[in-house]
Amino acid sequence: xxxLVESGGGSVQAGGSLRLSCVASGYMYFxxxxxxxxxQAPGKxxxxxxxxxxxxxxxxxxxVKGRFTVxxxxxxxxxxxxxxxxxxxxxxxxxxxxxxxxxxxxxxNAWGQGTQVTVSS
Length: 121
What we know:
Elements: E1 5-7, E2 10-13, E3 18-23, E4 33-40, E5 47-52, E6 58-59, E7 68-73, E8 78-83, E9 92-100, E10 110-111, E11 115-120
């Protein structure tokens, strides 16, 4: 069952920006979960691009650090990913995910269906 729903993807030229949203209206543990953004391009491994803990602590890999910003609104049960200075290598399907508890461990409890981001040269 789909409990997280992503939106906001699309096509943009290099250097542009997009804001992704993940609405967790069907996921009852939002405020108790570490929330994640992942991406995966065809033929490539899944890559975590952002996480935010229950206390608002954020983490990013070097590939997106300084360009992507993750945030959440507990009142709206919504996760966001602001993506700036987009590069062609950012092209991928972007997914949000959740797992109850700390970001350091635990099984993923919910996934979204994904939203496509395409960045042209």
